[in-house]
Amino acid sequence: MEKKKSWQNYPLQIMVLIFTVIAELIGTQRIPLGRFSFTLAPLIFSMILMTLFYLIPKQKIITEKSTPHASEMMALAGGLLLAKLGVSSGAAIEEVLSAGIPVILQNLGEGFSFVIGLPLAVLVFGMGRESIGMTFGVSREANVTLVSEKYGAESPEFRGVMTNYIVGTVFGVIAVSFLMSVLAEMSFISPISLALASGIGSASMMVGGLGTLLERYPEIATELEAYAAISNLVSSVISIYTALFIGLPLTERVYKWLNNGKKEQVSEYGKS
Amino acid sequence: MEKAKLNNVMILDWLMALLITGIIVLIGNILGYGATITQSIYGILWLLLFTLGGLIFKQIIPLNLPAMAYISSIAILFSIPLSPVSDLVITHVEQISLLALCTPILAYAGVSIGKDWPAFRKIGYKGAIVSILVIMGTVLACVVFSEILFRIF
Predict the structure, then answer these.
(1) How many other CB atoms are there within 10 angstroms of residue B39's CB atom?
(2) Residues B14 and B44 in one domain
(3) Are residues B103 and B76 part of one domain?
């Protein structure tokens, strides 16, 4: 029998349709949290519904066998999203190009991923060198490859980068969209900066952040989409170099600096 | 990496997959964003065309670029002011909410999340907290960079 194609996995397609319909019917929800409110776009609901459904014990409709199909479908459907973002970019191309320098250079912020996470990991949680792999960047496939080449797949750094990768897959979209809800309330930050910053990491993290912004600022949707898309495009080209030449060396240096004066930690995890 | 030779079966498979997602997006766009079928259908068809074009170019152009680069470039070229059809493309595609596109995509992503869930549960709260703060720290660093850069340039 010939191998089944991704699009022929009808149970998968039907469940995606059902969860899309439910998510759109729920619509965008705002949950007030003190002074702020947390925006939940339908994309969060469809994602959570599918995750929960997958985790139902003994459910036979979508199992591990469907995961390659789902990944391929996601890549193809992602093409439609890229095309939409491309059209928004083309429509606002003059505006985005006139802001060329900030648009490109703000991506270097990706070299400073460690600023909050690393001190916490080393000083509070007492982590060893795995904290370097965990905090030098938002780890997608390229960063994982970088660390396995530089430190080896058996290293503590590699365990760290894999931790970041898995947590990013599971919680990345929610984390970015939550943060954007909070930042969007701060009127001294321009929504353009937020759109640019949501261009980090994977495409799904980007839409998590961008989705929240679009709900908040529907009147400048095309501009926001254009800035986020161009930022994501620039990021996908330069992020590996940002990680290699800024993120990783800086994280190493700060790690050593944080460990000064707490030698016992160093000897415990040590240089294996 | 060796590219598989482009053939009709491949194109048909892409087309079927894109048509299925296109229909799901169309339904979501109508339910969630108040569009009608006639308003949405041309936009979906443009997006489908750009995506299919990008996938085909990736196979026939002997460069090691991801399909993403071709899809984005085609879509941008069709909609910049120089393009004779830019007004038409932009008007049609504007009818498709970006969020309507994301809802089914993230449903597919939910499957990968479910698959990674057992690995996630082994990580423990420290790794989870640190990793989430790294993601948030990256966003914050980019926001700070961008705010500073916009004030300089």
Answers:
(1) 16
(2) yes
(3) yes
- Answer whether residue B83 is part of any domain: yes
Task: Read off the pLDDT of residues B71-88 as tens digits, 9 standing for 90 and up.
Answer: 999 999 999 999 999 999
Yes or no, beta carbons of A73 and B80 under 8 Å apart: no
Q: Is residue B1 part of a domain?
A: no
Mutate to test the interface with A, among B113, B144, B151 (most CBs of A within 10 A): B113
pLDDT digits (tens, 9 = 90+) for A136-161: 999 888 889 899 999 998 999 999 99
Do the Cβ atoms of A135 and A110 come closer than 8 Å? no
Q: Where are the domains of chain A?
A: 7-66, 73-269
Q: Residue B127 falls within a domain, yes or no?
A: yes
How high does pLDDT run on average in chain B? 92
Contact check, Cβ <8 Å, B116/A166: yes
Contact B6, B73 (CB under 8 A): no
Q: Is residue B50 located within the same domain as residue B78?
A: yes
The residues in A 14-73 lying below 8 A from B, measured between CB atoms, are 15-17, 19-21, 23-25, 27, 41-44, 46-51, 53-55, 62, 64, 66-67, 70-73
C-alpha to C-alpha distance for A14 and A11, rounded to whole angstroms = 5
Same structural domain for residues B49 and B102?
yes
Among A81, A170, A209, the residue with its CB nearest the CB of B120 is A170
Q: Of A17-26, B44-53, B121-130, which range is least confident?
A: B121-130
Q: What is the ipTM score, two decimals?
A: 0.92
User: How many Cα neighbours within 13 Å face the side chain of A212?
Assistant: 30
- Provide the domain limits for residue B150: 123-153
What whole-number distance in Å separates Cα of residue A17 and Cα of residue B30?
13
